[in-house]
Amino acid sequence: MSGLAERYGPWALIAGASEGTGAEFARQLAEEGLNLILVARREGPLDALAAELAGSGVKVVTATVDLAGKDAVARLAEVAAPFEVGLLVFNAGADPNGVGFLDGDLAAWTELATRNCLTVMAACHHFGRLMRARGRGGLLVCGSGVCYGGIPGIGVYGATKAFDLNLMESLWAELKPNGIDVLYLVMGRTDTPAHRKLTLEQGRDWEPETMASAADVARLGLERLPHGPIQNWGLADDEAGWATISAADRRRRIEAIAGASSYAKKG
Ligand SMILES: NC(=O)c1ccc[n+]([C@@H]2O[C@H](COP(=O)([O-])OP(=O)(O)OC[C@H]3O[C@@H](n4cnc5c(N)ncnc54)[C@H](OP(=O)(O)O)[C@@H]3O)[C@@H](O)[C@H]2O)c1
Predict the structure, then answer these.
(1) 221 lines ligand 1 (CB under 6 A)
(2) Best label site of 86, 154, 194, 241, fewest CB within 10 Å?
(3) pTM of the prediction?
């Protein structure tokens, strides 16, 4: 991983930046010399991360935005307006509910779907247009292995991740001629504060030694960003494994379809 600032531009916006993989993306992008817009709901953790990164030589702006809010992307656009955002990392996306479909409030499922689908879509639309106008950029969305099929107890979460999988695969083929890299980073169990909180709330054992580290996951995402549309945690590009179909085979499928469609020829 190197040359990210040259490839994407001077600023990165991380949605869900204050802890776990989001904070690791921030640390690694700061090392690469990208200025950062850090977004989350809680001000304290954002300020602490900004203070930690103060000595890194990059500029850091923080913004408290609820990504499940209807005005979320209008807020992101406002905060980012003075800066050239060449890389969007959409990290926030876990299901904090920990209950089955009918046991959860519809309001909670609506909030989850809004943040994970509508806000992801609107953010890619807003920042993608600006990137297309410049002829370069990167869109990285954090996903989960549940994107490949339903699992009881996390139905809405899985459905939102399947939405993002489809969207990002399509955008990868559509925006490639515009110089925009697109990656859907399909994660497995990862040692993050949010995952820890939910695990303990559910009375399950917390076993971080069985999980990926947030730093390793973020590093893999940044390394593989130019090689989308999919990176499956723990699997090589041509390995199907738990994902059933390898990332390489998925890429070949999209390339075959894109090659036969008018979009691939537009640029
Ligand atoms: N951890 C795992 O085992 C695992 C496994 C598979 C996939 N993933 C994926 O990895 C990503 C990160 O997961 P995570 O475990 O770190 O938990 P997460 O809750 O998705 O992410 C935590 C970060 O997102 C922010 N955030 C959450 N909801 C937000 C909202 N509505 N508005 C603004 N910021 C929000 C949090 O800060 P605030 O609380 O201050 O807002 C925090 O900075 C997610 O997309 C998740 O689906 C995780």
Answers:
(1) no
(2) 241
(3) 0.97
